[in-house]
Design a protein that fits this description.
Helix 2 crosses helix 3. With about 400 residues, the protein is α/β, with parallel strands linked by helices. It folds into three domains: about 50 residues, no CATH class; about 90 residues, Beta-Lactamase; about 230 residues, Rossmann fold (3-Layer(aba) Sandwich). The N terminus is likely disordered. A nine-stranded mixed sheet has the order 9-8-10-11-7-12-13-14-15, with helices on both faces. It is built from 13 helices and 15 strands. The chain starts with 13 loop residues before the first helix and ends in an 11-residue tail after the last helix.
Length: about 400
Amino acid sequence: MTARLEQATPPLDSDLVGRVRRRLTDTVAAPTPVAVIDAVRAEPAQAPLGGTTLLRLSGRLYDEFAGAGPLGTLLVDPTVTDVVVNGPAEVWVDRGAGMVRADVAFPDEESLRRLAQRLAASCGRRLDDACPYVDARLPDGTRLHAVLPPVAVRGPYLSLRTFRQRAFTLAELVAAGTLTADTGQLVGAIVTARLAYLVTGGTGSGKTTLLATMLGLVPTPERIVVVEDATELRPAHPHCVALQSRPSNVEGAGTVTLRDLVRQALRMRPDRLVVGECRGAEVVDLLGALNTGHDGGAGTLHANRAVDVPARLEALGLLGGLSRDALHAQVVAGLQVVIHLGRSHAGRALEEICVLLPSGPARLVHAVTAWRRDGGPGPAAAALARLLASRGVPPPPALGG
């Protein structure tokens, strides 16, 4: 063989990282891939490198200075949804079927701390001993949460949730096993009938993913106004605008809450009002909007089971000063459906669709099963079919009609 084999990319030792960092600090305002390559070539102690090895080494150094460090290769993997770091030597990754250990590590605690602080700084946030945790959104949309010692006992700890630039289609969710062909028709019918719904489930169950897909089914002439803590919903819809809440600055001023934004959204002529995640008093304003002519609104809500949704709404309503009776009256009048997702080692899947129905003299709301993954049509299947038919939408086969 006449071709020369490239030598393996050498490991990133702390001395090389320090020397290249100092050289870049002295010569450029901000590191670029070209500047990093030039800095590596200028290292007198660096052995001659082949072209491919030089590019690999420089790419890893660039990630160390301006990217996500050792986590860079994980974050660019399109199958990765979450990356968590439990200290320098322990990195875990979720590709949709639960957490598995990744073959990635940091040289030491200080390098992990530098990465966490640099990522926080790129979001315009502070992370240091005085403010040892941060919850922010990276410029590319990735959600960042970081905690420093001593709050993080064996840290620093990092949690990164990647951001999908394009919403899934119904066909893609069916192919992934989240939906079946029949339940895909059912959630499509719920959107078409302009029923108000909540997508519920635990953390990482796919609530935002399904909601974005369902919003993509909204007819083109309708205007969607989305309110979120951090921009995640990017439905494939030509007329969707988003509002994002804002935390206070270092002086404790400038806060814009979800509740503030729901009120603003009502002035923006929404055909569909969407709250990305209901987790506070904003649920009162959302329910108020659903009771004043804004059909087809939606949101997500953390809940262990669909049957727990009324209790979760009660707790959030109390934060907004809404009594139990008043909240149930608002739900009866303005919110119809709960779409519940679950996750297992097999992946994320639609577990149950419920109708919120009143019962008893007090007309308290209960989540009654209309369809369940392990049982098909449930006791409220006929009620959901009537709701759809009353709005001119034929009930799909999943309801047993």
